[in-house]
Amino acid sequence: MTQELRMAGRFIVRLLAGAAIGLVLGGSALAADGPASGPDRAAVIATVQGLFDAMAARDADKAASLLIDQGTGLRLGRDAEGRPSLRRSENRDFAMALNQAEADYLERIWDAKVMVAGDIAVLWAPYDFHLNGEFHHCGIDLIQLFRIDGAWKIGNISWTDEGRNCPTSPLGPPE
Hints:
A hairpin with a 2-residue loop joins strand 5 (120-131) and strand 6. The protein is globular. The protein has helices spanning 3-25, 38-57, 60-66, 91-97; strands spanning 72-78, 84-90, 105-109, 113-117, 120-131, 134-148, 151-160. Strands 1, 2, 3, 4, 5, 6 and 7 form a 7-stranded mixed β-sheet that branches. It has 2 domains: 1-31; 33-160, Nuclear Transport Factor 2, Chain: A (Roll), CATH 3.10.450.50. The protein has 4 helices and 7 strands; from the N terminus they run H-H-H-E-E-H-E-E-E-E-E.
């Protein structure tokens, strides 16, 4: 196991442990304002959906307008032997790659949990991903957003790639 994978694993464990403690204790003085509702929740989900729409349209400019350049993507999947495998990407590289994409992308989320504290938000949701009209994989999206100049921007995206080991999406097949 590489040092980078061990460090990322420890960070994820600490993050999940902190979230679990916060949920059990009902939060603390430093905890988020709580589950978002109303305009903040809608705006966070709309920003994430805007990125998915930009992916589907292969619109690098739209994607870049929703992403913070310095942000990253971190995919947790499995290697050929079934061991956890991390892959990191830069937001700016991801956005620009959409211009050269030849595949059709469709990503859908449901049952999104959104938490907001001032100008920072987190969205956690199950998702499914379709490539060229066919189911490809599913997992959990964990997306961190920041409100900059009044607009939500996506800073960091982490997701699991569970392959085809997925429950049936409540959204049904894509249209």
